[in-house]
Amino acid sequence: MRIPLIAGNWKMNNNIHESISLVNNLIQLSNDFNNNVEVLVCVPFTALYSIRKLLNSSNIKLGAQNMHYDEKGAYTGEISPLMLKEIGVEYVIVGHSERRQYFNETDESVNKKLKSSINFAIKPILCIGETLEQRERKIEKITVENQIINAFKDIKAEDAVKVVIAYEPIWAIGTGKTATSEEANEMSSFIRNVFKELYNEELAKQVIVLYGGSVKGENASELMNQTDIDGALVGGASLSAEEFIRIINFNQQYEKVNKEIL
Ligand SMILES: O=C(CO)COP(=O)(O)O
Predict the structure, then answer these.
(1) Cα(19)–Cα(256) distance, rounded to whole angstroms?
(2) Which residues, listed in sequence order, are joined to residue 63 by a DSSP beta bridge?
(3) Which phi and psi (to 5°) does residue 105 adopt?
(4) How much distance in Å is there from the Cα of 235 to the middle of ligand 1?
(5) Known binder of ligand: residue 171?
(6) How far apart are CA 204 and CA 197, in angstroms?
């Protein structure tokens, strides 16, 4: 069974003080959490240590937004998987489009990071997705397929299943434009098909596929209740505890909406 995952990607926001305050708010509101959902916050490196201590008494998981693939060495300014492990980081975002766009993240480095995070037992969240231009040229599927094939080069099925996929169409990130639930579900189902071809049907059914791109409280339930979408990678809306909780509780809203309709 695939347990839904709602992950917040704070990006380069929140100093330590603000991070602590946001997580304290989340913990306070967490009594209202939907119990069947895994909740994760991917915070800036500088806040990881303080937030780890806060989260120890909660069910919320801790993630980083990037890492280097080597365990140590002469890589000025980088953070290694060992360093993340030491703090107790459970997840790491790999290959976010902003890293591909601004920091020369390549398919090759993404592949190395996936292998390394699996090696160090940090669960990777692999981000894939097309640009607006690629969608307009109707090459969004081949783009996503190639990103998967390259990212999973030389990764065995037993490791591949540990990777969470986040489908984030670049044109929907931070723009307020969301893919329609049909578009997002169609791509998620296509992603499962790629895994079926690359590995097997069982793995295609097991892999967790998130949607990311302007997810908010008001659109979460519709997106999350699609057959092939298992959760969300949330940017802007994860910076507000109240809004993030609305997304986490997408099922309650969904049930409420359905009851109102009935
Ligand atoms: O990039 C994202 C999450 O990784 C999405 O960001 P927004 O939710 O702000 O569009």
Answers:
(1) 31
(2) 42, 91
(3) -65, 125
(4) 3
(5) no
(6) 9
10 is in an annotated binding site: yes
Residue nearest to atom 3 of ligand 1 (CA): 235
**pLDDT in the model for residue 70:** 98
Residue 33: enclosing H or E segment and its boundaries? none
Domain annotation for the chain: domains and CATH numbers: 5-261 (3.20.20.70)
| Ligand 1 pocket test target in 12, 94, 128, 173 with most atoms within 8 Å of CB | 173
Catalytic residue list contains 168: yes
Looking at residue 253, its amino acid is: Q
- CA-wise closest residue to 66 among 121, 109, 108, 13: 109
Whole-structure pTM value? 0.95
ipTM of predicted complex: 0.99
Annotated binding residue 11 = yes
Catalytic residue flag (residue 17):
no
pLDDT reported for residue 253: 54
Which residues, 6 or more positions from 181, have their beta carbon under 8 angstroms from its beta carbon? 222, 223, 226, 229
pLDDT profile of the chain (262 residues), mean per 10: 94 98 93 81 98 93 98 98 98 98 96 98 98 95 98 98 97 87 97 98 97 95 95 98 94 54 43
Give distance in angstroms: CA of 241 to centre of ligand 1: 16
Report the nearest atom of ligand 1 relative to the CA of 173.
10
Residue among 187, 239, 242 nearest 218 (CA): 242
Q: Phi then psi for 178, rounded to 5 degrees?
A: -110, 145
Atom of ligand 1 nearest to the CA of 127: 4
Tell me how far the alpha carbon of residue 129 lies from the centroid of ligand 1, in angstroms: 12
Return the pLDDT at 231: 97
